[in-house]
Amino acid sequence: MLNLSRRSFLSVGAFGMLSMPQILRAQKENGTQHKAVINIFLAGGPPHQDMWDIKQDAPSEIRGEFKPIATNVEGIYIGECFPKIASMFDKFTAIRSVVGCAGSHDGYQCMSGWSRNQKVSGSQHHPSIGSVASKLLSPVDISVPVSIGLAEPTKHMPWSESGSAGYLGYAYNPFKPNSKMMQDLILKIEQDRLKNRRSLLSNIDSLNSTINNDSFTEKAFSVLTSSKLVDALDLSKEDPKIRERYGNGKPFKYQYDGAPTVNEHVLMARRLVEAGARSVSLSYGRWDSHGANFDLVRDHGPKLDQCVSALVEDLDHRGILDNVTVVVWGEFGRTPKINTGAGRDHWPQVSCALLAGGGFRHGQTIGTTNRLGQHVVDRPVHFQEICATLYQGLGIDPTSQTIVGTTGRPNYLLEHRNPLEELI
Predict the structure, then answer these.
(1) Which strand (E) or helix (H) includes residue 366?
(2) Is the pLDDT of residue 10 over 90?
(3) Which of 39, 351, 370, 378 has the CB geometry, 3.0–4.6 Å to 333, for a possible disulfide?
C-alpha cells in the first residue's frame, strides 16, 4: 500500500477531503431552508445569579454587585450587563434550573448531553450533537461540512471541546479550522495541477473504501475547489456595518488558560450556517471566576450581550431564525455565597442556559431556584432535555431515534429524551 498522506499529495492543510465520507455522498437540499444549531459554550461555569437569575432579595454576600433590569417581556428581569438581550427578550428563553451537571471543567456535556465518564461500552464515548447530525442528515452543500467546531485551542484543553464522534467513528468528527484558519483552507496547488492528479487518486488502494466510483471522485474534487467554505470563514466579505454590530470582543481579558471573547466567531457561525453547516459550536470566554467575579462579568457580559443579540437579530432579519436554534451555556453554575476574593466557586447543583430561535416559543423563563440561588424549587431541567430540544430543532426526533455504533447495538441519543414542552 502506498504510504502517502493527504497533506503531502494535495497540501490542503486541515481540510482533509477524504476524512468525511458523508460529505462525498451528499445530496444537496433543493429549495429548502435547512435546520441548524449554534452552540455557544461559556467555558468555566458562568455565574447564573449574575446573568439570568438575579437574586435581588438575597443578602449582600449572595446578591453581589449587579442589579436586575427589566426586559421587554413584562415581569422578566435579567442582569444589568445584558441590556441588548433584555431589549429583545421576547426572542429568548432563560432556563434558570439546569440540573445534572457533571461538575468538571469540560465542554463535553454541553456538546453531547453526556458526562465524559458516561460511556456506551468500554472506552466508547457518546457522540456530540454535531456528529449525530453528520451521521443522520445529508450535507446541505457537499463543499460545507455538516458539523464545524470553531473553538480555539486552549491551555486547559477540555475548554476547547468542539464535540467528537465517539462511537460513530472518526469520519463524523466536526471539521475544525485550526488557528491558522484561512491559510490552511486555501488550496495550495493550481486547479489544473489538481485535475492532473486524479490518476494518482485512483491508484491509492487505501482510498477505495471511501471513494469507489467516479461520482464520488468528482464530488471530492468539488470540495477542494469550491470557495464556499473559505468564503464563509472570511469575514472581510461581510458588510462592515454588520461586523460592527457584532463587535470583535477585544481586548481579551481574563483569558488565562481559557478561550478569548471572540465575537467574530459568533458572526462566523452565522455565515457558516448560511453556507450550509447544520451544527456550529464555539467556546466563548473564560468564566471560572474564583476571584474578581464581578470584574470578569463586567468584561465578558457586555461583549456576550453584543454578539448574541446581534446574532439573533441578524438571523431574524435574514428570515432564518425559526430554522436556527441558538444555545448559550456553560458546564455548571457558581456558588451563591461570594468568597473572600470577591469570587464565586464551583456549584454543579444548578446552572443556567439561554435559548433562542428554532421555531420555539420564546419570551419566557423556565424553572426557578430558591431565594439564595442554591437549588431548584420548581421545574428542574436536565442537561439532556436541552440537548433533546436542540435535536428537535434540527429535525431529529430525540424520543425515538437510535444509532447503531461499532458494537452493532442501537443506542438512543439521550436518556432524558423529551424536548422542553414549554417551548413547543
Answers:
(1) strand 364-366
(2) no
(3) 351
